[in-house]
Amino acid sequence: MSTTASGRPGEEAQVDWGALRALAQEAMGKAYVPYSKYPVGAAALLDNGRTVSGCNVENASYGLTLCAECSLVSAIHMGGGGRIVAFTCVDGAGEILMPCGRCRQLLYEHRAPGMVLETVSGLRTMDQVLPDAFGPEDLEK
Ligand code: THU
User: Fold this and answer.
1) 10 has a pLDDT exceeding 70
2) Is residue 73 within 6 Å of ligand 1 at its C-beta?
3) Is the Cβ atom of 90 under 6 angstroms away from ligand 1?
4) In a designed cystine with 24, which of 32, 43, 50, 98 is the match (CB 3.0 to 4.6 A)?
5) Residue among 55, 65, 117 whose CB has most ligand 1 atoms within 8 A, to mutate
6) Banded model confidence at residue 44, pLDDT cuts 50, 70, 90
7) CA distance 68 to 90
8) Where are the alpha helices (DSSP H) in 30-111?
9) Is 45 strand, coil or helix?
């Protein structure tokens, strides 16, 4: 389905959610998950039109695991930057997965105004999935 990032036709950038999910599914196939056997893939459309993706990378020291969103955020910066307009994340079955709390914070830092996530309960804004968030602005106060 193609909708606007806001989920309301006529507003903001057009988002091809099917294509974004396919990108996340492709990334999921690259996950390094020898411990949990739980692959995750994430994909995002940026405000400069670029798409980025990431997969989870685990470690023998379990707590050092990098979520798929970590790898996606690194890809944003390695590719020259940009801010996230639309985001999706999938599990090993290719089904939509909610980003964990830590990753919501990670994504928040790199959001474009009005950023939308595809979630298990439909399209949601970043503010809906992380209300009253702490962010870089707080450090300026
Ligand atoms: N995982 C992610 O990659 N992103 C999330 O938002 C949730 C959890 C990964 C971490 C770990 O490799 C596996 O899922 C099981 O927790």
Assistant:
1) no
2) no
3) no
4) 43
5) 65
6) very high
7) 10
8) 68-78, 101-109
9) strand
Neighbours of 58 (CB within 10 A): 19
The SS3 assignment for 136 reads: helix
CA 67 to centroid of ligand 1, rounded, Å: 5
Sheet holding 84-90, edge to edge: 51-55, 41-46, 84-90, 111-119, 122-125
CB atoms within 10 A of CB 128: 12
Q: What is the pLDDT of residue 15?
A: 97
118 within 8 A of 15, measured Cβ to Cβ: no
pTM beyond 0.85: the answer is yes
Hey, which residues are catalytic here? Answer: 69
Note the residue count of the chain. 141
